[in-house]
Specification:
Elements: H1 5-22, H2 29-32, H3 39-44, E1 46-50, H4 65-71, H5 75-84, H6 105-114, E2 119-125, H7 152-162, E3 166-172, H8 179-186, H9 193-210, E4 214-218, H10 225-228, H11 230-239, E5 248-249, E6 281-286, H12 306-318, E7 321-327, H13 337-353, E8 367-369, E9 373-379, E10 382-387, E11 395-398, E12 408-411, E13 420-422, E14 428-431, E15 443-448
Parallel strand pairs: 1-2, 1-7, 2-3, 3-4, 4-5, 6-7
Antiparallel strand pairs: 8-9, 9-10, 10-15, 11-14, 12-15, 13-14
Helix pairs in contact: 4-5, 6-7, 6-13, 8-9
Main location: other
Pfam families: Alpha_L_fucos, Fucosidase_C
Protein name: Alpha-L-fucosidase
């Protein structure tokens, strides 16, 4: 049978239509997990996490203050309240003191830009349920009707985007003491009143109103994703939302989902894999090792110093991850000077060494114990060897790179090529110049023309 040109055209049209239809994601994990991760996320590598809310007012213990006080009945928190507040004082009574009177979103954005971060993630709502925007389902438990009397989510988003940084929002699915949630929990999550009337309306509102580039979901672990209607939300997010082509999400969408479903994987807080993961991942870490929210009783010994932060960043990027570093502002809206010092220190290091971090990929070898420990990244045909302590000698050996007659080695920040010689079947020994002072105690060798 002879096939006509019109039949071929019709077939190609139907094939094209089927392809378009097939590109839509259905509300199941097989389909949703097949969505390619938008490319911007892997390129940026470094972001800033901001935990800010009513918990910033007591600023004691951690951002889990309310739960530790009234949920876990931790004696330390009970004693703190007895000593410092009158009988009958409730957690809601803290909210009016969440003034944020010194909150300058442009000043925050300048600090974040100076840190070298390329994306910022703000808590829109933590487990306490207080929303940092005028959520229509929050009654007066939000930052417009209470406390600061301003749209914190919108104000910071505008400032961050003016500096061409990506803007993401953290959102807790559950709320510790929300009566609707507690009722659903009592039913064994067979009812979904809280999801229908609170959690999902807020997520849709955040996306439509602020168009975030990233959604950092949390508070999912007590109930399965079927309770949260997570797959239905993500199908809408990927197919029809105003950010469907750019938005990135994490993996916290229901009990059993993390490290298994979603966009990139957070897995556990401060997740540190021992080897190169097969899936794009992110390490969230806090400058304050005890808390994500601001603590008035924090000690310097409890904070990560600059060398430790740079080592953590380098380790994460070498293993293919993004590094999301948290700071907790005060209830007044101030980023503590010690946090600002850390962020600007990272930025100063990235000004010199950033080409070994941004838009790089994991190399065939991620690390080696050379003269000192070395972490590798790569970009096209260039390999970077980042060492995070001084070798205290002029010679430096690397065993992993395979050199050629065209190999050129430089130290970032020093334009002069370094002298080197091959070692056996692979590797090289090179002569280091005097290393420039680095508060981060980390330097980068750039190797061009290696296999």
């Amino acid at each position: 049978m002879q096939v006509t040109r019109s039949q071929i055209s019709l077939f190609l049209c139907l094939l094209s239509c089927a392809s378009v239809i097939g590109a839509r994601y259905t509300p199941d994990w097989t389909s949703l997990d097949s969505r390619p991760l938008p490319g911007w996320y892997d390129e940026v590598k470094f972001g800033i996490f901001v935990h800010w809310g009513v918990f910033s007012v007591p600023a004691f213990g951690s951002e889990w203050f309310w739960w530790n006080w009234k949920g876990a009945h931790d004696f330390k928190y009970i004693l703190y309240m007895v000593k410092n507040y009158p009988p009958g004082f409730s957690y809601a009574d803290f909210a009016p003191d969440f003034h944020a009177q010194f909150f300058d979103p442009d000043a925050w954005a300048e600090i974040f830009e100076a840190s070298g971060a390329k994306y910022v993630v703000l808590t829109s709502k933590h487990h306490e349920g207080f929303t940092n925007w005028e959520s229509p389902t929050s009654w007066n438990w939000n930052s417009v009707d209470n406390g600061p009397h301003r749209d914190l989510v919108g104000d910071l988003g505008n400032a961050v985007r003016k500096r061409s940084l990506h803007y993401g929002l953290y959102h807790s699915l559950y709320e510790w003491f929300n009566p609707l949630y507690l009722s659903d929990k009592q039913s064994g999550f067979k009812t979904q009143e809280y999801v229908a009337r609170k959690a999902m309306p807020e997520l849709y509102d955040l996306v439509n109103r602020y168009k975030p580039d990233l959604i950092w979901s949390d508070g999912d672990w007590e109930a399965p994703d079927t309770y949260w209607n997570s797959t239905e939300f993500l199908a809408w997010l990927y197919n029809d939302s105003p950010v469907k082509d750019i938005v990135v999400v994490n993996d916290r969408w229901g009990n059993g989902c993390y490290c298994k479903h979603g966009g990139y994987y957070n897995c556990a807080d401060k997740f540190s894999p021992g080897e190169l993961p097969k899936h794009k991942w992110e390490k969230c870490q806090s400058v304050d090792t005890i808390s994500w929210g601001y603590r008035r009783n924090m000690k310097l010994s409890e904070l990560m110093d600059l060398p430790a932060l740079i080592k953590d960043l380098v380790y994460t990027v070498a293993l293919g991850g993004n590094y999301l570093l948290n700071v907790g502002p005060t209830a007044d809206g101030v980023i503590a000077p010690v946090f600002e010092e850390r962020l600007r220190g990272i930025g100063a290091w990235l000004q010199i060494n950033g080409e070994a971090i941004y838009a790089t990929s994991s190399w065939r070898v991620q690390a080696e114990n050379a003269t000192v420990p070395v972490w590798y990244t790569s970009k096209n045909s260039t390999v970077y060897a980042i060492f995070t302590s001084s070798p205290n000698q002029n010679t430096f050996e690397l065993s992993a790179p395979k050199t050629s007659d065209n190999t050129v080695v430089t130290l970032l920040g020093n334009p002069k090529p370094l002298k080197w010689a091959p070692l056996h079947s692979s590797g090289l020994i090179l002569l280091l110049p005097d290393l420039p002072f680095s508060p981060a105690q980390a330097w980068t060798l750039k190797l061009e023309g290696v296999a």
